[in-house]
Amino acid sequence: MINLFLSIESIINDSILSFPRRWLSQSMHVWLRPLIVVGILLFSAVLAYMGSPSHLQLILVLPLGIGAVLLFIRWPPLGLMALIGSIAIPISGPSNSNATLGLAALLIGLWIMDMMVRQQKIQLPSSLPVRPLIFLVIVAVLAFSIGQLPWYTFAQPAPLGAQLGGLSLYLFSAGLFLIGASQIHEVRWLEWLTWFFLALGSFYIAGRILPKLDQLTERLFTAGATGSIFWVWMIALSFSQAAFNRRLSLHWRAVLGGIMMATLYVALRQGWEWNSGWVPPLAAIGAILWAATPRLGILATFVGMIGGVVKSQKLIAAIMVGDNSYSLGTRVDAWKIVWEIAKVNPILGLGPANYHWYTPLFPIRGWAVKFNSHSQYVDLIAQTGILGLACFLWFFGAVGWLGWQLRQRVPDGFARAYAYGAIGGVAGTLTAAAFGDWVIPFFYNINLGGFRASMLSWLFLGGLVALEQMYCCPTEKNAITK
Question: What are phi and psi of 362, to 5 degrees?
Answer without folding.
Answer: -125, 85
